[in-house]
Amino acid sequence: MGAPDRATIFPALAAILAGAGATLALLLAETQWHVAVVALAGVAALLIGGRAGFGDAIHRSVASHHRVTSATSWLAGAVVVFLLREHNFELLMLCTVMLYVLAGLGLTVQFGFAGVVNFAAAAFMGVGAYTAAVLMTSTGLPHLVVVLAAGVVTALIGSVLLLPLLRTRGHYAALITIAFGILFRTFLEVNDTLGGPQGLKVPGLQIFGYAFNEAIEFDDETEWSFYTAYAGVFLVVLGLAYTLVRRVERSWMGLALDAVRLDETAASAFGLNGAAWKIAAFSFGNFLAGIAGALYAILTAFIAPASFTFGDSLLLLSIVILGGLGNPLGLLPAALVVVVLPEKLQVIQEYRFLLFAALVILILLLRPGGLMPRRAREYFPGRSS
Amino acid sequence: MDPALFAQHLLNGVMLGVIYALVAVGFTLFFGVLDVIKFSHGDVVMLGAFTALATSIAASAAGLSSPVILAAMLLAAIVGMALVGMLMARYLVLPLRNAPTLNVLLVTLMAGTVIREGVRLFYPQGSNPKPFPRLLPTGAFEFGAFTLRHDSIVLLVLGVGAIVFVHLLIVRTRLGLAIRAVAQDPETAAAMGIPFRGTVLATFAIGSALAALAGVVNGLYYSEVSFNMGLLLGAIGFSAAVIGGLGNVYGAILGGFVFAALQTIGAVALPFASAYKDVFAFGVVILLMAWKPGGLLAERSAERV
């Protein structure tokens, strides 16, 4: 290895700019015609760019200028939120996308890194959402504590599945999470103390005495949507979770998780405790899903069993697969496609499950790695080897 | 418990068990030959029921008598679903043979969603539950408080007959021998001149035909079908096949009856509301998996490293 061969920073900045621009354009597109053009252009850019080698250029440049690019990404996120400050509906969608990405991060750790299947991601979000709802209405705990507690409770409830999950593999393990997902939903529907099919109301977020559900007014007549504050908080939570997941992936922990996923027997021959890694990954993923669920409950102010069905778990799973299994960055375009497109394209609203199912089938058949396939691990990022 | 009531619940449980076993046998057959789970199976059950429904509407419009309608709808559903199963195997499952096994699970889950949404959107008023025609004799034998409906007897005979038929097919025929050979070792089977692809397609046709039968039996028993019945039936059939031990036909039948028994016990014997019967049944399934990770009738196998 010679001297570090630093790439220029421009491809990375261009990529961040393009990502933020595409997100904004998709959210703000007015007519269905615009939406279709933006979405198709975005997907085409991803596919063609990947084939033409832009992906490598961006990747090298990000790896060489790690701090600057991550600071720029935070800034870009804040700018997107700021530009949308007066658009209620668009901000709501952006918040939803961020929560799906957050839950998708959890699923990525479980399924993408450790290889632990989870067909009940939406059920775990539901656990977090109901925990938050109950804690917020019946106790006076600070809301930030409630959100964290929802994550912890979700991880604890998930640990009920650990014993069967560790003893089984493959399809047998898949069955356990599927059974849990159905069980959870049925339980909510018939349980009267948790509101039954009608669900529960959730109060608005308050942090340090600041009520989030009030529109942000200034002395003159400018008024920001109250979702701006939510989007800001979600951005911070998502940014922290994303950084954490990335750090885990790059560290010795990520290496251990990869080893356990790829060949548990060989990994154990090298002294890795496969069960312990799977437990850690499953619990951490459920923690993130629980936090996403709690924030979802607070955002929508109302939760019902119908929001946490098996179909929703599949939607989350298809986000993870669509983005590229194991690549946290791919979650963003995938979640945009899955969440925003049906809202914007009223034409396909009715047909959205049909179209997504068909889309995922096509991707799995033609491009098994997803929109942004996971890259091989680089031990010395930024150096050409 | 009152013996008549007990007999009534037993009959109901057996009826459910037959339906679940029909679905579970399909899962286990597919797993046997290809080591894959075809999760659209529940939706194939539903599609079979709707095919039968559409056929019966067309046939009764043509003025045919009940037995003829019944035969026509069974035939249409079974042949139709056998074709659907073969198409899915050919274009969705076989191309992914070398992909990670969970990809197949996902692809077929999505294919199931396509079928489900397709029926919901394109069948006339497909999002509402549909009444299923009552084509079987409506009388009943009365034994005190216990009533044995004639149609239940016919359905039981039909279901059990189909299971026995598949059993004989697998144990006694050349096709069954080929299926068992491919299940045991595809490469050796191919070396012995057994056509791999043909055997797989035949297996998928048989399993899907059973699914169609399960759909029709389910429709005739409850007199109602709906587009989303397949999700739960598929999950139950999959659970049954897994409880029994994937790849083992008898395990699947056993699993079907175990699941039906769990549901019936959950509905009848639990102290709290019977609404929790599915919660109870799936909870016990999770516990069963923790206890016997390979299913009740697991294949004895050592993992080769």
Shape of chain B: globular
* CATH fold annotation of the domain at 85-343 in chain A: ABC transporter involved in vitamin B12 uptake, BtuC
Please, how many helices of chain A?
Answer: 17
Report the uncertain regions of chain B: none
Structural class of chain B: mainly alpha
How would you sum up this structure, described in words?
The complex is a heterodimer of chains A (385) and B (305). Chain A has helices spanning 10-28, 32-52, 54-64, 66-83, 88-113, 121-138, 143-158, 162-167, 170-190, 227-250, 252-262, 264-269, 274-300, 310-323, 331-344, 346-349, 352-366, and strands at 200-201, 206-207, 210-211, 216-217, 223-224, 302-303. By secondary structure, chain A is mostly helical. Chain A has a domain at 85-343: ABC transporter involved in vitamin B12 uptake, BtuC (Orthogonal Bundle). Chain A has a two-stranded antiparallel ribbon. In chain A, strands 2-3 form a two-stranded antiparallel ribbon. In chain A, strand 4 (216-217) and strand 5 form a beta hairpin. The longest helix of chain A has 27 residues, at 274-300. The N and C termini of chain A lie close together (7 Å). The model of chain A has no long low-confidence stretch (mean pLDDT 84). Chain B has 305 residues and is mainly α. In chain B, 72% of the residues lie in helices and 4% in strands. Chain B contains eleven helices and four strands, in the order H-H-H-H-E-E-E-H-H-H-H-E-H-H-H. Chain B has helices at 3-34, 41-61, 66-93, 101-122, 150-172, 174-184, 186-191, 196-222, 229-244, 249-268, 277-291; strands spanning 130-131, 140-143, 146-149, 224-225. Chain B starts with a helix and ends in a 14-residue tail after the last helix. The relative contact order of chain B is 0.19. The model of chain B has no long low-confidence stretch (mean pLDDT 87). At the A-B interface, helix 8, helix 9, helix 14 and helix 17 of A face helix 4, helix 9 and helix 11 of B.
